[in-house]
TrEMBL record:
Transmembrane segments: 16-37, 49-68, 80-98, 104-128, 140-164, 170-189, 201-221, 241-260, 285-308
Residue intervals of the Major facilitator superfamily (MFS) profile domain: 15-322
Protein name from the UniProt record: Major facilitator superfamily (MFS) profile domain-containing protein
Primary site of residence: membrane
InterPro entries: MFS, MFS_dom, MFS_trans_sf
Topology relative to the membrane: Multi-pass membrane protein
Keywords of the record: Membrane, Transmembrane, Transmembrane helix, Transport
Subcellular location(s) of the protein: Cell membrane
Keyword Transport: yes
Entries under Pfam families matching the protein: MFS_1
SUPFAM superfamilies: MFS general substrate transporter (SSF103473)
């Protein structure tokens, strides 16, 4: 028996339990939000679109900060940064439980999204540091099943609690998972990080603003107007809606990010993200496929519960009485 086989046979799965639950933590939170929209609308007396902002800001924070999160993990050390962001995710759940207004709820999801932006790259990095060979492949594959399990579980548990008790208790489940993940994180091993790793702040700002602009633009096309500004638009420029202007701004900022990254690479400096991952057609196809899968998942998680609650007038878990 080789050394590698011996290591694989004796490596404990206990660290993976914590990583598996960390993936469930994020997915459960995301899936629980749409189920809770109806309860938030009733409790705070706000329109569904305002309550739905909590979902939007979560995604914004994740998308805008995930690249920076990967660099922070390398700089600080994956295990330490993982524990910190799991703790902040727990704080966001506590904010959801005690928040007195919709502003608290939105702020809580900003904290959760910022935490998830670092948890996402941490999972892959920590699997690579704790497992080898077949165990590593099995561990990576299990993260996908964690997303599916947590999504279905959140719909059932969130729907039942939302109907029988209220929307807040579902986030007590999220808090419990976060505490358990934090405790299990002490079974993980990882390096201490490299303080010499630099973070390209210019690229981070460019890509962050690009994502925020694009998301706000597309998200508000219907409310603010596709071209001409509606009465709901916060402002207008010569009668033109800010939504398409934000989309154009996002595209421009995105192109500036690519130009800056290429310039930094040619200068021999470390970029925020290496564009070599898009160098071949097969690699680009893989990225596009992953984007489509995540986009469809987010669309389903958002639209199905809202359609059931708002359009059909049903509760999160019970059919409408006839």
């Amino acid at each position: 028996m080789t050394t590698t086989e011996t290591t694989e046979a004796t490596t404990s799965w206990r660290p993976m339990i914590g990583l598996f639950l960390a993936q469930m933590l994020m997915s459960f939170n995301v899936a629980a939000l749409p189920v809770s929209i109806g309860g938030m609308v009733d409790e705070f007396g706000v329109p569904p679109t305002t309550a739905g902002t909590a979902i939007v800001v979560y995604g914004l924070a994740v998308a805008a900060l995930v690249m920076v999160g990967a660099k922070l993990g390398q700089r600080v050390g994956w295990v330490l940064i993982f524990r910190i962001v799991v703790a902040t995710f727990a704080i966001s759940s506590l904010m959801m439980l005690i928040g007195p207004s919709i502003g608290w709820i939105i702020a809580a999801q900003v904290v959760a999204g910022a935490s998830a932006a670092i948890i996402v790259p941490s999972l892959v990095a920590l699997i690579a540091e704790n497992y080898r060979g077949r165990q590593q492949a099995t561990a990576v594959g299990s993260l996908g099943s964690a997303r599916a399990i947590s999504g279905v579980t959140a719909f059932f548990i969130g729907g039942a609690l939302g109907t029988l008790v209220g929307w807040r208790p579902v986030f007590a489940v999220v808090l419990g998972i976060a505490v358990l993940v934090f405790l299990l994180s002490f079974a993980l091993r990882g390096d201490k990080g490299d303080p010499g790793i630099s973070i390209d702040l210019v690229a981070a700002v460019l890509i962050g603003l690009a994502i925020v602009s694009l998301t706000l633009g597309f998200n508000n096309l219907n409310g603010w107007g596709v071209l001409s500004a509606t009465d709901d638009a916060p402002f207008h420029i010569g009668g033109v809606s800010p939504a398409p202007l934000l989309i154009v701004l996002g595209v421009v900022l995105g192109q500036l990010f690519f130009l800056w990254t290429r310039r930094r690479t040619r200068a021999g400096k470390v970029p925020l993200v290496s564009l070599s991952v898009l160098g071949r057609g097969s690699e680009r196809a893989a990225v596009y496929a992953m984007f489509i899968v995540v986009m469809l998942e987010a669309a389903l998680n958002f639209t199905v519960p809202l359609y059931i609650q708002i359009v059909q007038g049903r509760t999160p878990s019970t059919p409408r009485s006839r």
